[in-house]
Amino acid sequence: MPDSGPRASRAEIVVLAALASWGLFPLVLLLVHASQLHAQFTGADGLIGADGVLGADQLQYLAWARDAATHGGLASDLFSFSAGGHVYLQPLFAITGWLYRLGVSLPVAYLLWKPVAIVALFLAAVAWARRFFDDRLPARAGVVVLCLFLYTPLTALYSWTQAGGSPFRFQLYLLGNELLAADKLWGYVPSALGLALVPASLLAIERALDRAGAAPRVSGRPQAHAALAPGRALAPAGHTPGRALAPAGRAPRRGALRPLMLAAGAALLASWLHPWQGITLILIFAGLAAVGRFRHWRALAVPAIGAALPLAYYYLLSHHDPAWRLAGHYEVIPRLSAPVLLAGFGPLALIAVLGIRRPNGVMIERALLLWIGACFVTYFVNDSFAPHALQGLSFPWAILAVRGWDRVRAAVRLGRVPGVALGTVAVGLLTIPGLAYDARKFVRTADSSVVQYYLPTSDADALAWIDQHAPAGGVLAPTPFAAIVPGQTGRAVWVGHGYWSRDYEVQARVADRLFGGRMSPRAARAFVASTGATILVSDCRHRANLSRRLDPLLRSVHQFGCARVYVLKAS
Questions:
Q1: Where are the domains of the chain?
Q2: Which of 198, 449, 499, 565 is the most exposed place for a label (fewest CB within 10 A)?
């Protein structure tokens, strides 16, 4: 990052306003709809898939935050009755839980991170664009827009036309969603913050090496790019003419320590909030060391270690805690098929290849190309939710795309004004159709009164009673309503989340048969006794009265409008 950059341009302010509007759009829509339904907003504002599994992610975040609030910042899995312990420490959820303990509503405490993520993503995109294009305002604005709002062209086309088979179209949509950085503001704030910290770490390590006199550095001004030509000397940005640079092998000066620690801290937080970004960063730092013949490996090892620490922690969780071991065995989001990858990345590659240039020893130029390679290595090597590794590709791709357009414009000798106009049209085609499709999809989903978004008064009253008055113990509830229970009550549920509940599909079907009134009394009593639950709660979508079926097991029944709470006798 430059020591003293120019003020935000009007175009950048417009982009910030657009990003804020996009990030807040689901929240405003859901709150308005909840008011119309006279329902309580649950706090989930992510786009929900057809099976409801994706919608449970934000409810899992709320459950972790609530559990962390009462266990010193450490959370456990509340979506099963497993023997998992309070072992999960995550800074965002721990702080959210602390705010909840201070009296802030849990959904509000979590949603306070949304404006933080909006600003972080915007600043990351601006800093990244300025590093490469500096005072070239149109190019810089184009990079910022593409970093934040890139939507793969064929994803938008197939989504709008509904062409192709459903599996292909869904996978292509998933790829486009992973690449769209702004979409992480819809419910996935940890991912948005983790992504924003990647360019922060890369720019900080460049500054650290620059201040140590260890890395050639050029500014983003057009005339500075000429320094990449053979025979031209490279000088660090901000270097005073006539002042000698420190030798490459010399120990870092004191001025390099602060950006080095910033790079390490950003890498650590990025990895902690979104482990896929941590893996990508480690690969970038390793690549930088290898390409540089390990001349500055000690400095590069500092942020690499920062990124590795949370990964080691997650590794220990997945191998020693039953709940995390269970979740680690589910591959909910498998790798995308080869045709999908070709359709998604093919057009983008044709555009970006025109912007590739020799790094010529410039660290950030090397990192630009290594970022792309690291994302794909992470995608093919890591078996857990592989498409998440593609998040962040819009940042390096945006630089290459704008450079490629510059090259085309120069080749056809297009003037500045028509070049900017056509470039603006191209950026619009790469963003607006896909964004419009997602906005329409969210409007339709929000209008469907999906249970993960809204709690009718009766359901809210039933969960409030469990929170405040019910005896200790786990809860059995129908799906997808069960996903709301942990965050609202702090209680574990027998089944509720697609990959945190054991055999989710099987258990969900059995639970829904019970609450749908489709079990005989004997089968119902045997099933309820086998779960180990002490409380059953039936929401307004499941109106079957289970009192007679479960009578020998019941201590009391409490009715709240169309919702019921069944308290079981102590075994």
A1: 42-111+451-568, 115-227+253-444
A2: 449
